[in-house]
Amino acid sequence: MSESKKRPNIVLICVDQMRGDCLGSAGHTVCHTPHLDQMYLEGCRFSNAYTATPSCIPARAAIFTGLKQASHGRVGYQDAKPWNYETTLAGEFTKNGYQTQAIGKMHVYPERSQLGFQNVILHDGYLHCARNKNEIDMIDDYNPWLRKELGRDADYFDNGLNCNSYVVRPWDKPEYTHPTNFVVTKGIEFLRQRDPRKPFLLYLSFHRPHPPLDPPAWAFEQHMDVDMPDVPIGDWVDESKGTPLHPALSVGKLPPERLKRARAGYYGHISHIDHQLNRFFESMAEYGQHENTIYCFTSDHGDMLGDHNMFRKVVPYEGSVGIPFILKGPASSGIKRGSTSDAVCELRDVMPTLLDCAGLPIPESVEGRSLLPHARGETPEWREYIHGEHTAGVKLSHHYITDGREKYIWHSDSGKEQFFDLTNDPQECRDLINKNSHSERIETFRSHLIKELTNREEGYVSEGKLIPGQKVKACLSILD
Q: Which domains, ranges and CATH numbers included, belong to the chain?
């Protein structure tokens, strides 16, 4: 029997900036995800999945290392900080005889760092850091491929849309040249070129639905033609801020027609990804690998998409920190088909989950935990909560504690607190921090945060109390 039949293949699919509620199987009424919904029907969806650090770089550190943020050292967004982790997801699979391939977004530094993968085909998106040094062609494989395919000088930025903009313009080139198609095309090429004697770990990492909002026209138009529910605006939101003019806004209102276009562009990206994933799944079947493969689908973080007059990520609210998480495997994996787990989980759980699925040892350094028992319908003793955070300058730096049913937020600059009952108020419209009926729960969550932050270098805790106004930074000193 060949090695590829003894151990399952692993396909980790990571999209960028996809909200956890943007799945038909999660009850979304506008976003079309039939093939991801089929993945759920053949696997397990985790309904309380979170990113502990809601921006691209620190979230991926959790995926690749299995560590919490205080251990991997990235608590905010900072480019050009070297990645020197000894133990990584891909490194463990490579060490144990897997052929390992990454395609798409890594967002590490140096950009060509392999992090244990045997090969990387890279497309991280716009990459300000590399472009500002005129190095984009040296560290991006998509742009040279695009020029070759079109037979002319071309660039990812031809359509003039910024990589954090909520301006929408459908893709202006043949659809097969879209970055989403590129990732799947290269994934299918890997299936053809791989070593058939080995099982494989394939990391398919899409830059979308992260802006620029440039899905194919069909994907954009099908969402412009439907009515969309109003975005939630909490009773705690200051509506006096008005409408910002900058197209890369993060806080403020958009006029209704522009907001609908932005949402249609975002949902269009997700539909496009969904279709391309089906293309990949069918190719897996054609190559005889579909029935011997564990699939994991997730995102690095979400997008506020107008909720509470906010856009993009880094904030502690559900649109930003809630992520999709689906695990699917063959019958031999024991994963229950069409099941949903409410175990509160986060991205550091990806690495131990996939190692467990492959029957490989989980390194002692890993702080995440395998979700495979939950996917099998078991009820192991589990964590009580997760701790999330993100530094984002004055007014946006925060910490949060959630168990998936309630959430406590501490804004570390001002000391402001918030508390939400996610079971009865999943869109976080009612801040309960000053309601006497929740005082005991708030104190419990506050004590959890104090425990997490005690002895942190920022000085967040003194004499058992949270201390606001401390100087924050994106990377802790363990990375220096």
A: 3-384 (3.40.720.10), 387-479 (3.30.1120.10)
